[in-house]
What we know:
This protein is mostly helical. It contains 13 helices and two strands, in the order αααααααααααβαβα.
Amino acid sequence: MQINKLADENLFRLCKVYGGRALMWRAKFTGLLPEVFKRKLYVKKGFDSIFEFAKKLAGLSEEQVRLTLNLEKKFEKLPELKNLLVSGEVSVNKLARVASIATAETEQFWAENLKNLSKSAVETLVRDEKFRQAESDVVVGRVGLFEPQGEGKSLPGQRLELSSEVEEKLIELQQKGINVNELLLEFLKKREIEIAQEKEQVSQEILKKEEEKEPTRHIPKSAKEILHQEFGTKCAVKTCKKPSASIHHKVAFSITRSHDPRYLVPLCKEHHELEHAVNWQYQDIRSKRMQN
């Protein structure tokens, strides 16, 4: 094969294939390091240290080697996660994301998600679970993405940004003896009612059209607009600050054949991936129960 004669797309495809294989074998090599270290195999083969061994044979940095050895100790009582490490089935970088949160009770949950999710989705899931655990005593994996996060509690790192004009008007009202908290709360409740009423109207219009004509996967503009009014440009998950990347059907479109906005939510890339992973896990569990 003459590389210089390959079309750009074929060259790119080849890069992805070879790159993927390189990552796979690198992960498998990394998984061998704890046993190499225990046997001091690197000494027997003439290397000064485990770090020199890993660098010369696979190009691993000292930091990567230390992380691998530390994880192997961390997972001593978590056999499923330890097996993912030593087998090279999951990269060290992904495993490191759950090291601080995984327990004997939750390791199966994390093991399944590590195998199925991207690194960024794993990071998002870990962040969400840490926040939930800090808010209440919940069992990992039992709470849906759209569960309330606690009444009257602000999210970590959230600050209200008011323009100087709005701030001045609120102070002026407060000085007049008007309760600005009640005023704002009344406005927000009115906004919620108006959005709910408009969403119901849009829903009925869409459902009527869907009865007349089989819907495509294209989400109607009216549904997108009402979702934008409700959620703005951000992900619908309350603990998330990322921009929304796609609109998620809470019940799969393949089942409902509907774009009813009451059952649609905008999600970031990672939370969209997590929602579909939850669906896959549910379907897998359901099919196994049916087989039994």
